[in-house]
Sequence to fold (348 residues):
Amino acid sequence: MKSKILIVDDDPLGIATLESMFHNQGFEISQAQNGMNALKLAEQIMPDLILLDVMMPGMDGFEVCRRLRTTPKLAEVPIIILTALDDRASRLQGIEAGADDFLTKPIDRQELRLRVKTILRLDRYRTLLTQRENLQKMAERVVSAQEEERKRLSRELHDDLGQALIAHILKLKNIQSQTNLHNEFDKLIEDANHIINRMRQIAQDMRPALLDTMGLVSALETHTKEFGSRSNLPVTFEADVDIPKLSDVHSITLYRTLQETLTNIIKHSNATQVWVELSVDEKNIILTVQDNGIGFVSTSQNGMGISNLRERLALVGGAFTITSALSKGTIVSASLPLEESTQTEFVK
Ligand SMILES: Nc1ncnc2c1ncn2[C@@H]1O[C@H](COP(=O)(O)OP(=O)(O)OP(=O)(O)O)[C@@H](O)[C@H]1O
Ligand SMILES: [Mg+2]
Fold:
């Protein structure tokens, strides 16, 4: 796509001279002969660069520049001010008004082309960076929204359906006491209790309530211990004392990492010992899950678990690594950069 340049000058000859300098350079040139028109046109065409003359009747170039900078859509557009005044005061005024660069009249063709090229290159780079930042923010918002929805479903499963089933059991017990079908009712009650437990487990996996009430360290520790008792595997959990409080998206990322890696250990590793550790260094917070199982060389094509974790970690600017060798066990490590993941307080 051609870069769009808007030339603003009250002097038609000035515009014609500049236009001729860009002739056949692959730019799309537009022009305005006063400040008001320049502002209107800029909003319409969204130029990649504005070349702005200072001395104009009515609104001068400095004022146009200031107004552009306070128009959200145009606040970032590169502006080069063209001035016959080669004095310090007017340059300072230009900087104050928000100009990116200056060119002194009469304009040197070579210099103009070079400056324009540099500014457009820098601007493309800046746009790319902003786009990347926006994408990352959007990805975080998607993860947050997904977690919010899980939180809601988890609460509904636990509170709503859970209460309904408990009421159901009470009714069954009531009828049981009035009939002689004692064993049949016992079976129905046992089934209902089973459903409640299963549902609570689903609610818990969907959104660990502990993460909201007790924070990350307790949630990780509780999950590790429950995993140990469910799987009959000896598991140790260690956490540094000075783990900072992480944002929700970062906490849930580490929690999901623990869930998936422990599930993988049960499913694939044949391990007899598992170690979970949460630590901080100057720059990162790191979750490490190690087992002494059979290890593996490369991941199978079918599984989603590890690739999902890689994506989750990348989304929040973190890193995910696996160190594994056949018969030597597996170490999985997820690391998040501290300054992006932390909130201000510290958890004890
Ligand atoms: N701790 C481990 N010990 C041994 N092998 C492992 C371990 N963790 C992962 N693997 C190997 O890596 C593969 C990929 O794991 P991944 O979690 O991506 O998929 P999965 O567990 O097979 O399926 P999914 O997670 O989608 O239910 C596993 O199939 C297994 O072969
Ligand atoms: Mg898996």
Notes: The radius of gyration is 32 Å. The pocket of adenosine-5'-triphosphate (ligand 1) is lined by residues 264-265, 267-269, 291, 293-296, 299-300, 302-306, 330 (CB under 6 Å).
